Each structure stands twice: as C-alpha cells, then as structure tokens.
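Training component of the fellowship. As part of building independent skills, the fellow (R.M.) carried out the full modelling exercise for a liganded target. The chosen ligand was zinc ion. The inputs are recorded below so that the supervisory panel can assess the work.
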Amino acid sequence: MTHATETVRVAIPRPLHALFDYSVPDALAGPVVGARVIVPFGRQRLTAICVGQNPTDVHPRLKPISAVLDSENAFGNELYELALWLAEYYHHPLGEVLGTILPVAARREAKFIIHHPETWQRTEKPADITRAPKQQALIDYIEAEGGVLEAAQLRAAGFTRTIIRAVAGKGLIVATEPAPALEQLATTQPVLNSEQTQVVAALIQHLDGFAPSLLDGITGSGKTEIYLRLIERVRAQGRQVLVLVPEIALTPQTVARFRDRFGVAEVLHSNLTDNQRLQTWLKCKRGDIGILIGTRSAILTPFANLGLIVVDEEHDSSFKQTDGLRYSARDVAVKRAQNLNIPLLLGSATPSLESLLNAHNGRYRHLKLTKRAGGAELPSFHLLDIRGHRLTDGLSAPLQQIIGKHLKAGSQVLVFLNRRGYAPSYLCPQCGWRATCPLCDMPMTLHKTPAALICHHCARREFPPSVCTACGKPSPIAIGIGTQRAAEGLSLLFPDMPLYRIDRDTTRSQRRMEEQFMAIRQGHPAILVGTQMLAKGHHFPNVTLVAVLNADGGFCSADFRAPERIAQLIIQVAGRAGRAERPGEVWIQTYQPENPLLLSLITQGYESFAFSELASRKRAGLPPYRPMAMLRAESRDTALPMAFLSDIRSALSGEFEVLGPAPAPIQRINDRNRFQLLMLADDRRMLHRGLHRLQEKIASEKPLPTNLRYSLDVDPYDTF
Ligand code: ADP
Ligand code: ZN
Ligand code: ZN
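Fellow's submitted model of the complex:
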C-alpha cells in the first residue's frame, strides 16, 4: 500500500531562501500544509513547516521527517496565506516569515494546548451524601456560586484536594473549561459631540466588507472614543477586534480605557513570557479573545473571526520592524483587512504621508475631527528666535520667564528635547579633541550620575577622562544639551518645583515609570523634561506650556523622511498642552525662524505642511509616489560591502532608478562598515520585478564572503 503523502517540502525557520524535501516514513501520517514537523537538519533537529506535499522532481534519496506536530494548518489558512504574501512582498525567505509568525514557544516540540485553570462544574446527578457533610458543603457551595468554580476558589473556601477528588469520584462534579471572561459594557459613556457623531455614523455604514478609513483627528479630539464605539458594534456582531498601538508600556492609560469600557481586553506586548504569548495566540485563534490590544507583532496573530482592525497613531515608526522580516504592521494591516474583507481604521493627529496620499486619492475614506472633545482649545504656537541669545543649559532668558509664568499660575510645564544624556559631545577646548566611539566614529554622549561617555549607536561605555586624551591638558568640556543637563538647569532655576525627567534612562523600570506618570497626573505644578517618550498619547490635563528646546536638527537631516518625522513629533508633543480647561501655549526655540517648513507647520498646521511636503516628494520622485527598497551590506572589512553592492548594481537595469552604492549616513556602527543601494521604481510591479532580479543575482554570487552581511528592506522607514 502506498502513502497518500510520500514526500514533503518544508521551510526552515532560518534566513535561507531554499526549501527542503523530506520523505514521510510509513509510520507517520503525512503532514498537511502549514503543519509543524520535526526534521533532521545537518546535525540538528529543527521545527520546520510543511509547505507542500508530494513535490515533483525530488531527490531520489531523502531523509525522513522525525515527527508531525499538527494534524491541521498550525497558522490557520488565512494567516498562512498572509505569510505567503509577506514572503513575496518583502522578498524574504518563507521559512523565516513563518518562524517570525510562530510564537517562540511553538517552535519547541510542543503540541498546541490551551492551559485553563482547573475548574469544576456540578453535574445533573442528585447528591445523596448527607453522611459526608464536607462533601455536601462543597456541593452546596458550588451550586450557590452558579454551578461552575475554579479549584483555586474552592480551596480558598477551605475545600481540600481530597474532598474535591472524592466528590468528583462520585460523578457529582466534573472538570470543565472556564467560560471566557464576559465582556460587559460600561454603563456610562460620554455623549458624542457632533463631529464624533458624524464620524461614527459614517463608519458603521461599512462594517461588512473591506473599508479602509483614515481618522485624521487633532490631538485630544476623541479618536479613542470613536474606536470604542466602533468596537462595540463589531463585538455586538460577535466578531473579534484587533487594536494595534505603538507602545503599550508608555501608555497604560489606553489599555485601561478599553478595559473600563468593555470589562475585558487582552494585551499582547513584549514583556510577556513565551508561554503567555503562545496562550494568547491560541485563544485568539480559537475565538476566545474578543478584543486584542497589541504592539507591532500582534498583526501576525491568528483569529477565528476577526471583524475589525484599528491602528492607533498609524504614523508611528514603531510599526516598522527594523531587522529580520522588515514588515510594516500598518501596511500588513491593510493587506489583512483586504484579505478578510473587513473594515480597517487608521487613526492619527499627524497621519503618515503614505496614508494621507491614499486618503487624498480616495483609496481610504478621509474622516476628520477638527475640534478637541469636551471643549478644550488647541494650543497657540510661538517661535522664539534664539540667534545671538546666550542660553543657560539650553534655555534662553525669554523662555525661562515664560516657564516661570506658567508655574506661578499653578500649571505644569513640559520641556521637550530629543536627546537623552547630559551633553551630546565632550571635547577639549585646547586642541579640539572630541570623545568619539572607536567602533562607530560617532561622538559619544556624556552622561552624569553615573558619569559615563556612552555611544548611542552601539552602547559602548567609557569613563570620561578628566584630562584630554590627545594633548593631556585638563578639563575637557561638555558641549550641547541633553535631558539631564536641561533638568539640572531647570532645577537650579526653579529649586522648589518638583521635576520629572522622562527618557529611556529614567524609565527602565516599568513600575517607576508608571509611578512618575501617576504623580504627574495628580496635576500639581511641576516641570516635565523629556524626549519623545513624552510626546506619545499622554493625557496630562494640567500641562499648559510645551517648550521645544531645539527644533532645527530634524529639519536639516539627510534622511528624506526627517521633516515629516520632526513635524509629527512637534505636533504630537504640542498636543500635550492645554488638554483641559486652561488653554495651552507652545514655544519653539529656533536658530532658523524663517525655515519655511517650520513656519508652514506652525502657521498653517500639519495638513498644510504635509501637502507641501508631499509636493516636494513628488518632485523628487520619492515615496509615497514611487516605491523604494534598500539593499544594505555591512562588514568589518571596508572594501567588501562596496564591491558587493557595485556588483549587484551592475546586474540591475531598467526596472528602477538606483542610487548608490554609497556609504550609509552613519557609516560605521559597532565596527561594521555600512553601505547601501537605494532603488526606486515607478510602480510596485516594477519594483518587484527588479527585486526578483536582484535576488537572482545575489543567489548567483554564492558563496558570499563569511564576513559580509546584507539585508533587503522594502519600504524602508529610515535610511540610516
Ligand atoms: P485622542 O485619542 O484623539 O487624542 P481622546 O480620545 O484621548 O483623544 O480624548 C481626549 C479626552 O477627551 C479624553 O479625556 C476623553 O475621555 C475626552 N472625550 C472624548 N470624547 C468626549 C466627548 N464626546 N465628550 C467629553 N469628553 C470626551
Ligand atoms: Zn586636547
Ligand atoms: Zn559606538
């Protein structure tokens, strides 16, 4: 008798483009596509994924697979199809795509089992145990509590394991699965204002079918309230909802709002253990979880019955993965909603140029909220020309006065600058020596308490020398301002004010960060100093002044997305001001008060800025008008990457415009020399055709030198 499946083709969760064939021994049932299998691979045993049955033209002598872990597609058909699309769109090995999707715990040789807490249910059988009063008491207790109870609760009530087992032995109770936690809608909801009412009405017209919408609403306009109303509708249909957010750790408030409204909402973020992740994955797959809130990777969760995807702060860079499978969770969300034929809601006060263009072209519905919910006003913007001013720890005299005025009025003040540490450089005033990272050729940032020179690119740490390393003269000096220095200066100026510094150095502990945010929300007059961590979605009702210490850097950067990014950052951080009764002000210190981008942003607003930026992208033939991909090569060796990229370039023609090879803007990081090729095509089809050719060329180069690494990034977010 012959097997139905004699051979299988599998993908290995490694960065290998090749697929591998194995035979299926008689003793095993042939795996279906998408099932996990254990295979011998070199000297290892690996968990691989079956991607084809009985492939044609296989090698006559194949090694057998060792085990089959799943009787069905482990991903579910829909997610598996998405994986195939990801592999094609990002030109990434299928094995690594599937490996990225699978939770780490599922790569070990484990069966998919949902772990429930031990739970007991009263059966129909009449209890005749009056001679066992303890057992009778247990029956009475379970019945009084509704017939189903967790063992933990029984034990807390004083029933030992022995009693539980005895009652179960008589068939009076049986082990069961707990009912999933019930969602319960909060009884009070704010009354929607007229703009919100219109937006909700427009959205609920399209709950069936692919309907992408951009919710373009200013900071504090009540976008979250819109998500909640829409989710309520979709949950009423019994369908699941996925909400993607940039960073859960930074904004526990958001999750709290979902839980307040619905009673339950599961969260998927990076602090979970491997097993917790797998459990959430499996429960979503089975349909047990109604609302899942998660960061980037949550877009790769299987669902039984997904009915809506929401992407909050859709412009945020954290939705783009920057290593391995370099996917954009926002873009994948669009594809997935399309495959599933469900609505998609992208929300932001500062939409990405990609999404704005899609809205402008009519591919997305463009829904706007132009007023703050609950009546608060948007803050007023002011530029502070600091040419010729003497700055004390980054603060000009007029800014110091403005800060003092707000504090005196009993408000909170937020001082923003996007650089942590004490000072971005440490140099010798005698000879000009500057502390530089030997592995990155970049200036090292001076930190205080504890004193250190830290490279922000490779994290190398040195003790700051008290004499110049080059000329031996004493006292190198700190140049420029980081958050530590601004905080130090502010606490000298306002010694009695509480001061909270929020940056990656002060928020390493989640608990400490939450304590700080909680203290800030108490609303007492205080100074908040921090990086972009302060810009993200926080609601601090008592902040009336936002001061931006230096806006210029971002507008002069080499990266084509830099103006978009700095504009989003300024608008987002400004959006923290005046969110309650008292109006807010934003003051921006600048050496370039005539910078047209900055002027258009603050006088005409984000949308106007965005459209003029779109116009210049169009003239330059850049995304979102033309799709882009970046091939990067890096090596300890200085010549290899350049030679490799030049060789690849020679094989490319026609499909796209190729820029480079050129050194990356940061040419050396961690002793790796980085070079890149940028490719721009007139449309997606051409880009894909060109990238296929590029990959064939790379494949023909094999074997590549072992000290050369390369990566392909489709739709790169930044080109550093
Ligand atoms: P966004 O997400 O657009 O920044 P939020 O949804 O966080 O805005 O809303 C800002 C504040 O306004 C929140 O405190 C929210 O509870 C409140 N809010 C939202 N909608 C209303 C409404 N219709 N009436 C009163 N307050 C509202
Ligand atoms: Zn010197
Ligand atoms: Zn370094």
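The panel noted the following from the submitted structure. The longest helix spans residues 684-700. The domain at 3-107 is CATH 3.40.1440.60 (GIY-YIG endonuclease).
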